[in-house]
Amino acid sequence: MLFIEKVMKEIWKPYADVYKDKLKEYSKYDEETLKDIIKKGIDNYKYPANTNQIVRMTSMISCGCPHWRGNHALGGCSFCDFFTQTFEVFILAEALKRKNVASYAEMVRYSFQVQRGEKVNPLPIEFITVFDTMNENEFGNIVFNELFSDPPLYNQEIRTLVCETRINSITEEAVLLWKSKARDDLVIESGIEVGNEWLRNHWLNKKITDVEMYQAWDIIHKAGCSVNSDILFGIPGITERQSIELFKYTYKKLTDSNSFVVSPLLCKGNDLQSNIIKHFSEDKEMIRIGVIKKELSGMPHILSLLTAFHELFTEDETLIKKLGLAQRHFSEYYSKIIYRFRKSEYYPLVDSIIQVLTNMCLTQNIDDLRDLYDKIIRTDFYHRYLEQLSLEYGMEQLNETLHIVAKKLSNVYSNEEGFKEFEKELSDFNFQY
Ligand code: SF4
Predict the structure, then answer these.
(1) To test the ligand 1 pocket, which listed residue (80, 130, 328) has its Cβ within 8 A of the most ligand atoms?
(2) Per residue of the chain (433 residues), what is the pLDDT tens digit?
(3) Is residue 78 situated within a structural domain?
(4) 77 CA distance to ligand 1 middle (Å)
(5) Residue 253 to residue 238: CA distance in whole angstroms
(6) How many structural domains does the chain have?
(7) Residue 363: in which H helix or E strand, if any?
(8) Fewer CB within a 10 Å sphere, N or C end of the chain?
(9) Are 393 and 413 in contact (CB under 8 A)?
(10) Residue ranges lining ligand 1, Cβ < 6 Å
């Protein structure tokens, strides 16, 4: 087991113990009782409002991401915690699925109906998803058939259909099945996160190789469908300078992806970044190298986003055509940024960056980005940011950064042996960017 996998399992251990106990308890409930409890949860959940008239995302309830549920313990990707807020429902859904997968499928469909109603008029792009939509352990054919059974959920054909799944769940059969429900295009969204395979697996615990990624993309493209890749701005335990370079590298490397959905690293719940902040916020070495910052630690600086997009799109303007910003993640990120700067003299600048980033994504035009960047680099706000950056570790010290952070993590979550294993793993990391 890789070092990062052990760390993530340790972080999730308290939840894993609760999960096991509750699953045992819920397994004693009869099917109808489970369905009633799940239905109440679905009815009472506050679904995000939809303001977009082009795309509509409908996330349905499920038993949770199979990668997070693991075989014997919870864990999953190190930057991700989609789970603590609706933890209970995943356990109830898993208990129901084990009793009767048809009833589980009924609940998944019910969660669609509560949000959208029946005989829905589809928007031009309908995004219907769970976490790993093509994985039998979460969705599978029985749920698919239930979702698209009579009476139909939509009153006409869906033009562009989007669903999200892990790369290693993509098969030709599954792609063709989903494609049968899309008149114009099926877009398959998968988390690639970073272009470098070692970082993806040894630091993000993604468990997806480059070979698997290219094979899955090949299947999608041969079926005449489109690839949309989730990529991260910032990964746990690195500096702003490293985040900017890594992001640009990823965006440029994944040329075969038809489009991207960018998410800023968010620091929440049981993800690794939150735990780094929790344990090392006063750690002098982590502060010195720039992994911990006094302000807004845990999330990328908004000027890092501005800088990276500016550098990327002025170098090659056509790259903006692939850009998408993850709606939910960016709303959360902007709220935190706005809160942080609400009383600051720099607030108007922050606000204008948010406006420009949002519009740039919609218009696919970088004129406003260029103008704003030229204005910002003459401000104190930017000069102070540059000063901070000049003290941080850059890409040339990425190995050293990971070594320092892993050493400290091993003191909390692993042991000397575990760290030695990580050192062996790190000796294979030779990142040319
Ligand atoms: S990022 Fe995706 S694959 Fe990874 S744990 Fe989260 S939901 Fe699962």
Answers:
(1) 80
(2) 999 999 999 999 999 999 999 999 999 999 999 999 999 999 998 777 777 788 999 999 999 999 999 877 899 999 999 999 899 999 999 999 999 999 999 999 999 999 999 899 999 999 999 999 999 999 989 999 999 998 889 999 999 999 999 999 999 999 999 999 999 999 999 999 999 999 999 999 999 999 999 999 999 999 999 999 999 999 999 999 999 999 999 999 999 999 999 999 998 899 999 999 999 999 999 999 999 987 766 899 999 999 999 999 999 999 999 999 998 899 999 999 999 999 999 999 999 999 999 999 989 999 999 999 999 999 999 999 999 999 999 999 999 999 999 999 999 998 889 999 999 999 999 888 7
(3) no
(4) 6
(5) 20
(6) 1
(7) helix 347-363
(8) N
(9) no
(10) 65, 67-68, 76-77, 80, 82, 131, 166, 191
Mutation probe of ligand 1 site: the residue of 131, 165, 194 with most atoms within 8 A of C-beta? 131
Cα 359 to Cα 111, 303, 325, 347: the distances in Å are: 32, 17, 11, 18
Domain encompassing residue 231: 46-63+117-426
Residue 432 to residue 339: CA distance in whole angstroms: 38
Q: Would you say residue 185 lies in a domain?
A: yes
Strand, coil or helix: what is 325? strand
* φ, ψ dihedrals at 143, nearest 5°: -70, -40
Copy the structure tokens of residue 383: 């000069």
Q: Is residue 338 part of a domain?
A: yes
Distance 133 CA to ligand 1 centre (A): 12
Question: Residue 38: inside a domain, yes or no?
Answer: no
